[in-house]
Amino acid sequence: xxLVRRQDPLALxxxxxxxxxxxxxxxxxxxxxxxxxxxxxxxxxxxxxxxxRTSSRTLDAYSLAVRDFVPWxxxxxxxxxxxxxxxxxxxxxxxxxxxxxxxGRRGTLSPATVAQYIAxxxxxxxxxxxxxxxxxxxxxxxxxxxxxxxxxVRNPPYMQxxxxxxLCCDDRLAALLLLCAHAGxxxxxxxxxxxxxxxxxxxxxxxxxxxxxxxxLGRRVRAALSALTxxxxxxxxxxxxxxxxxxxxxxxxxxxxxxxxxxxxxxxxKHSGTRLYRATRDFTRxxxxxxxxxxxxxxxxxxxxxxxxxxxxxxx
Length: 316
Description:
It is a single chain. By secondary structure, the protein is mainly alpha-helical. The protein folds into 2 domains: 9-148, no CATH class; 161-299, Orthogonal Bundle (hpI Integrase, Chain A), CATH 1.10.443.10. 50% of the residues lie in helices and 4% in strands. It has 15 helices and 3 strands. It has helices at 17-29, 33-46, 56-75, 87-97, 111-130, 151-154, 161-166, 171-181, 187-191, 219-226, 242-255, 266-280, 283-290, 295-299, 310-313; strands spanning 198-199, 202-206, 212-216. β2 (202-206) and β3 (212-216) form a beta hairpin. α3 (56-75) packs across α5, α8 (171-181) packs antiparallel against α10 and α12 (266-280) packs antiparallel against α13. The chain is globular, with a radius of gyration of 23 Å. The N and C termini lie far apart (77 Å).
């Protein structure tokens, strides 16, 4: 049998069909969590819709989900290769009633977290089918109730916090925040910016799925980037991983007196979308700026005032 190093999940793609099937059957039969994580990552990066363009954050999220589901299945008598027709729903119900143990959180897991765990478990079963280990689909009929609270309400944009936090950032951290809050970049896009991506007042951004867009930069963003010196021969302006950037930004929020307001980098991107919409009143233009393929997605990034049409209906 072809040997596969555990730290190299892509090596699974080089196995013969028979060897891959054996590896999948063995991992599922013995509840080998880490091998099932490898199998899922190999499938996602070689056979899923996005393939090698699948983001590292998605891979990490699905890996976490597999590491949660497999021990649960083992402890609750679920045969991974021959699950019962209600086993998927049982897991969903357990997640919905599980206490949220995250720091500063109360109650049960959020609907978004539950959906993420189920997405990862479904990906694991797609990987097992890809490997030829089983045809089971225990989550096919498992219903994951959506969160009725709109995302813009659950995680609204930062507004007045941005300028206060910028005062507590060094030059590089301030540039990162401005790229998200004023240029509308995802934090992963911002961390990948290099000097070569800058041309005049525009920035070439390589986004999700390999999409490329040209983003106009305001004067504050241009000034912040011009103050930075590249950190490597390839012109990289940031050397942080996501968790390192998060640690630094969370610290800056605390220093600015807005520690409780920290909601991740996505709320900074929503700041950009909300401000641009208020200036243009055009979801299409905002969507192009943010790199969205659908205006419906853009609407979830814009905080619209409750009385936004008060003037228009006054004389109805």
